[in-house]
Amino acid sequence: MALNKKFDAELKASIEQLKTDKVYKRLNYLASPQSARVTMEGRGEILIFSSNNYLGLCDEPEVVQAGIDGLNKYGAGTGSVRFICGTFAIHRELESAIAALVGTEAALSYVSAWNANEGFTATVVEQGDFVVSDALNHASIIDSLRLAKAITKCTTGVYAHSDMSDLTAKLESARDAKRRIIWTDGVFSMEGSIAKLPDILEIARKYDAIVVMDDSHATGVLGTNGRGTAEHYGVLGEVDVITSTLGKALGGAAGGFVAGPASLCDMLTQRSRPQLFSNALPPTVASSSLAAIEFLTAHPERVKKLRDNAIYFREQITEAGFKPLPGETPIIPIIVGETATAIQMSDMLLEEGVFVTGFGFPVVPQGQARVRCQLSAAHSRDDIDEAIAAFKTVGRKLGII
User: Fold this and answer.
1) Less crowded by CB within 10 Å, the N or C end of the chain?
2) Low-confidence ranges of the chain (pLDDT < 70)
3) What is the pTM of this model?
């Protein structure tokens, strides 16, 4: 096999530099389903405190069985894109359930939430539009804006994180734009903070702006019934467009969606390139995702347990001497300062039997490296106490507490 040796050498040198900078990410291989505890190759059973499996549905028997049934009924996949070969009934059933869950007229599924965000922005935004984005929005939103700007020559802006005065100023400066669009996360994944959605909606009404919210870390998490950030604030049905994922609380497999007016979903079906040129969500994933939504609807107590677990962990980790960022979501970041410290702490916790990931620059700002703890409804009180004990051990060794 002929290889470009210079290219290969350049890549190897870059990898060595990542290792030198202590930001190289090691992959850990799991040999069991994602749950509160997993079997990790070479390490046996460990506690997972670094997963988006918020409701513990990744290995819920009803959800798993629905995926198996979908595979048996529909086969492995569509074999092509939806407009060429047709759409399975399960996709329409799933999309109706999504719309009902998040409080919109319609929804359209994608193979990932990343595709959903890119598909929405690049299709809907036009030349003359102004799109303004929270400074801490997810990378998929940022890249979707870059793509839309390159395609349409629209104007974009960034407002300081959750700074409503800055958002207002940015919209005020764009009064002459054809349309104004506000893009925000519902829950910011690295901070665990919640968007000031009521304020955003009020500002949007003042400036005749469209509100688009990625609710990936809130769907199944926030609100009494897990319907997301809008339910959390009592404004269900008032957000113009909601995008989210099926790969976190809702079964953890894959997939994403755009939800909003039926006219929007129709337009995305006609023009959205990730929709037009990518195979549909595998029917086994669509089936398990639908079962996850049905399970969530029937068992809102899972959402309460998740909330109770997050409150307990936050209280106990604070009492232990750590200083997590304030918040009320199951994302609880513990700031440690430097990237090397975050990576070292993550490695040491793994030796203690707890898997939690360290994040540093460029994922988070310089000096704000952290270990990001994520709670699940699958965690028992004993699981949490065991994790707290491991944090105390490692924290003392590193001089953090």
Assistant:
1) N
2) 1-2, 22-23
3) 0.94
